[in-house]
Amino acid sequence: MPAPDFYFDLGSPYAYLAAERVETVLQQPVEWRPVLLGALFGLAGRSSWSLGDERRRRAGIAEVERRARAYGLPALVWPEPWPADYLLAMRAATFARACGRGREFARQALRDAFQRGRQLGEPANVWHAAAQAGLDPAEVERAVGEPELKHALRRATDEAHELGVFGVPTLAVGGELFWGDDRLEHAAARLRGA
């Protein structure tokens, strides 16, 4: 069976929770696949819990923080504002993946965002994560403006949607999708049974 696909967006705190545990729980590497969560929401006719109703937003934040504690992760430091525009960061993640540094960049960026409160809508924070992941920030900055990279991210998002991905994090294991950081154990059980 090929490596499981791990679909993520750098603006998602649930993707952060999953990214910190996915390879440990599955006991194997995964293929890190950046997709645009906002575009997936649009394609599925959904919206984020973080937008709109303030009571729902507070409850969602509290739940993410509760899960982080339960998983033994550092206390979350929320970027301000959150959510923001992560398009540049997601293009950088797409470039990093093409360079073979996708996992390293994504983990660094997610930790910067949700452990250190760095706003990934700010280019300097994206370049910092790139450098920490072993990429040349100037090369990343040049690449994120290239039309082919923009199309690659859109194509990856559309292909994920066609497979049935409607949110992140999602793991694809042997044709079966597991949506949510709380589904990693189910995906691991599927792998063991394969």
Structural overview:
- The chain is built from ten helices and four strands; from the N terminus they run βααβαααααααββα.
- By secondary structure, the protein is of the alpha+beta class.
- The protein has a single domain, classed as Glutaredoxin, CATH 3.40.30.10.
- A hairpin with a 2-residue loop joins strand 3 and strand 4.
- It starts with a strand and ends with a helix.
Order of helices and strands: EHHEHHHHHHHEEH
Mean pLDDT rating: 95
Helix run count = 10
Helix-strand category: alpha+beta
User: Uncertain regions: pLDDT < 50 for 5+ in a row?
Assistant: none
Q: Strand sequence of the main sheet, in spatial order?
A: 2-1-3-4
Q: What's the architecture, going by CATH?
A: 3-Layer(aba) Sandwich
- The coarse silhouette is globular
Question: Can you give keywords for this protein?
Answer:
alpha+beta; globular; 10 helices; 194 residues
Summed up:
By secondary structure, the protein is an alpha+beta fold. The protein contains 10 helices and 4 strands. The protein has a 4-stranded mixed β-sheet, with helices on both faces.
Topology:
Elements: E1 5-8, H1 13-19, H2 22-26, E2 31-34, H3 37-44, H4 54-70, H5 87-98, H6 102-116, H7 123-132, H8 137-143, H9 147-163, E3 170-173, E4 176-179, H10 184-193
